Amino acid sequence: MVRAPPPFLQLSLPMRQQSLFRNQTRAHGGSHSFKKRRSFRPLSTKQALHMTLRSQFAKGERSLLKHKNLINEVIQKASMHFDVKVYEKAICGNHIHLLIRGKSRPDLQNFFRVIAGHIAQKILQSFPITEFERKAAGGAPKGCQKNRRKFWDLLVYTRLVSWGKEFKRVAKYIIQNTLETLNIIAYQKRSTRYNTS
Fold this sequence. Notes:
The protein is α+β, with helices and mostly antiparallel strands. It has a single domain (43-181), classed as 2-Layer Sandwich (Alpha-Beta Plaits). 40% of the residues lie in helices and 15% in strands. The protein has five helices and five strands, in the order H-E-E-H-E-E-H-H-E-H.
């Protein structure tokens, strides 16, 4: 007679597999692009999307905080042009968080392209990255030489967000980023990361 596995095995293994599967199919870009073949970006017009852009060169005169008006203007124009709803936004020193929803896949892809391209182009026109800075930064973040971008470290990071509790959690996380950046609240160590870029 074959015995059933102990209860702790019945619970722990399936939960881990489901979590791993969920993360792989809902997130794209950022550190998910390390040493991986180009894959299909999961997008949905029925779900919200957490989008993150990060740059190790966004410091000093290139700090995103110093270009807040420019970034807000680019996001506003792109969201209107591509019919993308922006629910929450956080512009921090070296990264940007957006919680958005688009009406079509091409519109979302164009939104990513325009946001990343226009912000980088306008900042670098005034404050270009020197060869010394590139060499000092090691050329590219560790493990992603092939994915090096001129200003942004990696591909745009996106993650599908379910409505309800998850949407509220991500919105709260983005608002928390803004409050920390403005020194309204102290930085709080994250127990859960909503982006891995």
